[in-house]
Amino acid sequence: VFDAYGTLLDVLSTPTKRAVVLNLPPEFVTVWRETQNSHTWLRTNMGRYVDLLAVTLEAMNSTLALFNRTLTANESTYLLESWVHLKPFPEVKMALKEMQINYNLYILSNGTPEMLEKGMRNSRLRSYFKDVISVDRVRAFIPSRRVYAWLQRSASLRHRKRILFVSSNNWECAGAKSFGLKTAWISRNKMRPSFLGFPPDYTFSSLLELAEALVDLDIHK
Ligand code: LAC
Fold this sequence. Notes:
Elements: E1 9-10, H1 13-21, H2 28-46, H3 52-66, H4 73-80, E2 87-88, H5 92-99, E3 106-109, H6 113-122, E4 131-134, H7 145-154, E5 164-167, H8 170-179, E6 182-186, E7 202-204, H9 207-214
Parallel strand pairs: 3-4, 5-6, 6-7
Antiparallel strand pairs: 1-2
Helix pairs in contact: 2-3, 5-9
The chain binds lactic acid.
């Protein structure tokens, strides 16, 4: 089971290009992404779920306010829509192609079904997955325990240990591990590990490295 944003799709890719076109500061996209994540955690905690598109918009507006910038309606749409045109990391297709042979691959993501559908179509990744599971049905964001319970039901996998959750986001691996799933952390760009106290079962530097190692791992097919 793969996380989408940051693991399969590069959240800096198209947003950074469009931010440059709009003459926004270089840190804009990183702050936008951090704000988006923190709003998902806050809203889940507050019991005030709105979907990821709405969260992405509010995070974008918050970041624009931070940098004292305003955009026209067209510019806002152009920037927000960069989120459905994210590019996959270079090794993703080849790795999925290999893993698809022996495993049922799923996506679990905070994205709305529509964002994920468009994102997967635009990046041509959809065909590798048995199903794309959105948190939208449970109205809570990762790493809420309700999300992992929903994943287990959706994938019809009664045994938690039969799921390998794969993410580049260290906090997502910690959340999944704390629920009782096996986890593999893809430490892209030498990210630091999570200090939450639920270390991943495996660490790899890319999905291709994971695909190669899966042959030896004790994960049932
Ligand atoms: C996702 C974000 C959290 O894909 O990375 O759900």
